[in-house]
Amino acid sequence: MSESKDTLHPSMQCKSLRSKEMYYSSPCSMGELCDSGAYWCLKTYEATGPDRAPATPQECGPDRTCFRG
Question: Distance of CA 25 to CAs 21, 22, 65, Å?
């Protein structure tokens, strides 16, 4: 993957990645970093994915074994 992890395109992020801003009346898009910086995985309901790596927009890409596109 030639794209920097800092700029992962929204379609390249896992659909299991969640942030509390997603539940606001006008949610931030997953293409931009949400203000809180608090993310979790829907598969584990923790700040890490099933592979125990961090659940963040920068980390949750197609190179992860748990990725859901």
Answer: 9, 8, 32
DSSP letter (8 states) at residue 28: P
Each residue of 28-40: pLDDT tens digit? 655 555 567 889 9
Q: What is the number of alpha carbons within 13 Å of residue 46 lying toward its C-beta?
A: 8
pTM of the model: 0.70
- Angle at alpha carbon of residue 2, lines to 63 and 34, rounded to 5°: 70
The tokens describing 7, both together, are 């700029």
